[in-house]
Structure formats: structure tokens, C-alpha cells
């Protein structure tokens, strides 16, 4: 296998059979030693974060498979911190799709003059461009279409899938007394079929979850979910 990309929280390898191997790391995004799923830099290293993230990702991807929601997931090896996935092509140079149930994070920083922290949002979906130099700017459906990153019809598909997936995660967490405030997802096109599929991961590192009004750190979230 060949190393093709070293990311903030995962390394990516191309396997001889054409599939992709993701190696989860203990690095998480944030700033000044504080975790932030919306940050563009590695903020800290948490021992065990890689395995915890993979365990949650495997758990949720398997649930999505049961619901016949398309993903890149094939299988995983928790002990090795690896996940085998289908090859996928990202939109443009990469997009992130956020589903927001409460006003926190960058949404609150941008629109704080018009909302309060924790204010309910109705599964609001927004798309940002993966561009560290420009702080991952939000982009509209029309702009995505005009720039030929994806069509307006594909945008609607992304929005629908994002809300379906986020609602599934939200409801599952609620069974443990946990509340999902927001979640960041990534999508791509299946390299073989061109179908739009969920890629990357679903873990504590790309969501904000609270219990009784208190934020839950990624490792603690994994412990609560599987307790």
C-alpha cells in the first residue's frame, strides 16, 4: 500500500485492490490546546482519540448501512486504528457540510448579534469550502453551481442526506441522555459508480454533544455512548 495523504487526524493509504485505508491518529482539531471540531489546525493530541473515533465511526456507519444510506465504509480494525473504505472523489477541493441543531461555534461567532448561544436551529444545513488559508468559508448553493463544484440538484441531495444522517445520530445519542448541537460531515462521489456517498468519519471529533447543558469531550463521549 502507498501513503497518498497525511491529514490532520488521519493518514490515507491506497491499497493494491483499489480501496483506501484510513489510519486514525490521536490528533484532534482545535486551538491553544482546546478542542474545536470547526478548527483548521491540530490543537492537541489525546491518547486513545484515534481508536475512540474509529469505534464511533464504525458504529454509526453500520447503522447507516442498515438504513441503506450510502457511505464509503467497507470494514474496520479497531485495534489497528484503521478503516477500509471505497475510493471516492471529493467535490472541488473538498467540502464540509454542517448540520446545526443549536447555535454554537462558528455560527454563533458569525451571527451572534442575532442569536443567543444554544438557541435552537431547525437542522440548519450549511456548506463550507475546505480551505485552511481562507478559514473554510461558507458557500451558497448558487455559488457552488456557478463555480461548477456541484449542481443545484446535487446540493439538494447533500442537504437531504445530511439531515437524514444527522437526525439518526441525534436520535441515537438521545437514548443515552446526550444532545447533539451540531455535526460536520463530508461527502464525495463513489469513484466507480459516481453515486454521492458519505465519506470520512462520524465521531466525537466532528460533532458537539452536550449532557445536561455541559459540553462532552470526544473521549468522554465515546465512553458514554458505549456504556
TrEMBL record:
Gene Ontology MF terms: ATP binding; phosphoribosylaminoimidazolesuccinocarboxamide synthase activity
Biological process per Gene Ontology, one example term: 'de novo' IMP biosynthetic process
Domain SAICAR synthetase/ADE2 N-terminal: 4-215
Signal peptide span: none
Keyword ATP-binding: yes
UniProt pathway annotation: Purine metabolism; IMP biosynthesis via de novo pathway; 5-amino-1-(5-phospho-D-ribosyl)imidazole-4-carboxamide from 5-amino-1-(5-phospho-D-ribosyl)imidazole-4-carboxylate: step 1/2
Alphabetical UniProt keywords: ATP-binding, Ligase, Nucleotide-binding, Purine biosynthesis
Source taxon at top rank: Bacteria
Enzyme Commission number(s): 6.3.2.6
Name of the protein this chain belongs to: phosphoribosylaminoimidazolesuccinocarboxamide synthase
Amino acid at each position: 500500500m502507498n501513503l497518498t495523504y497525511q491529514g490532520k487526524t488521519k493518514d490515507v493509504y491506497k491499497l493494491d485492490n483499489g480501496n483506501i485505508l484510513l489510519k486514525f491518529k490521536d490528533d484532534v482539531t482545535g486551538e491553544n490546546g482546546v478542542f474545536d471540531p470547526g478548527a483548521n489546525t491540530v490543537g492537541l493530541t489525546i491518547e486513545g482519540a484515534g481508536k475512540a473515533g474509529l469505534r464511533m465511526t464504525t458504529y454509526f456507519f453500520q447503522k447507516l448501512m442498515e438504513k441503506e444510506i450510502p457511505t464509503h465504509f467497507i470494514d474496520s480494525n479497531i485495534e489497528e486504528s484503521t478503516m477500509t473504505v471505497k475510493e471516492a472523489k471529493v467535490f472541488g477541493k473538498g467540502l464540509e457540510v454542517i448540520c446545526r441543531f443549536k447555535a454554537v461555534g462558528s455560527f454563533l461567532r458569525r451571527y451572534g448579534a442575532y442569536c443567543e448561544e444554544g438557541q435552537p436551529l431547525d437542522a440548519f444545513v450549511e456548506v463550507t469550502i475546505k480551505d485552511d488559508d481562507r478559514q473554510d468559508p461558507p458557500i451558497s448553493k448558487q455559488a457552488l453551481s456557478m463555480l461548477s463544484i456541484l449542481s443545484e440538484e446535487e446540493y439538494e441531495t447533500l442537504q437531504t442526506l445530511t439531515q437524514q444522517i444527522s437526525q439518526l445520530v441525534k436520535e441515537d445519542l438521545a437514548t443515552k441522555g446526550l444532545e447533539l448541537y451540531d455535526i460536520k460531515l463530508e461527502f464525495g462521489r463513489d469513484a466507480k459508480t459516481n453515486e454521492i456517498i458519505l465519506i470520512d468519519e462520524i465521531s466525537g471529533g466532528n460533532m458537539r454533544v452536550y449532557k445536561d447543558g455541559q459540553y462532552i469531550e470526544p473521549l468522554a463521549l465515546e465512553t458514554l455512548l458505549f456504556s
